Each structure stands twice: as C-alpha cells, then as structure tokens.
Amino acid sequence: MRYHSRDNEEEKQDKYIQLRQILNVVFMIGAVVGVLLYFYQSKSIGTVVILVAMFFKMVECVFRLLK
C-alpha cells in the first residue's frame, strides 16, 4: 500500500507556485512602499504605487485559479 503526502501532491498540481510566490513578494513590498509614500510624501504617488502593487496581486490570483 502506497501513502502519498498531501503537500507533495499539491506541489505537483500547482506548477505556478514559484511565480506566485514572487508575485506575492512584489505585492507586499509594493504595498508597504505605497503606504509609506502615501503618508510621508505625496498621496497621489502613494496611491499609484498601491494600485500597481494590486495589479501584481490580481495577476497572482489569476495563476491561483489556473492551478
């Protein structure tokens, strides 16, 4: 009888995991930088940076749905 690790199966099924992780890191860094810019510099530049970060998060969500 063979036992399979659930984590191993999920890794095999999710072929975009590394790309999703990179996109998540870009999103998190962009969101933090955007908030800092919003509060300490220009509100409009901060808003644009946050919106760009959100775009990366939306792309990551598309890859999550493709898995």
Question: Mind explaining what this structure looks like?
Answer:
With 67 residues, the chain is mainly α. The protein has helices spanning 6-13, 17-40, 43-66. The mean pLDDT is 87.
Give a brief rundown of this model.
The protein is 84% helix and 0% strand.
- Name the structural class: mainly alpha
What integer value in Å does the Rg equal? 17 Å
Question: What is the strand tally?
Answer: 0
Mean residue pLDDT = 87
Report how far the terminal alpha carbons are from each other: 28 Å
Flag low-confidence runs: none
Query: What series of H and E elements makes up the topology?
Result: HHH
Profile the largest sheet: none
Morphology: elongated
How large a portion of the residues is in β-strands, by DSSP E? under 5%
Write down the oligomeric state. Answer: single chain
Helix content: over 70%
Our count of helices gives 3
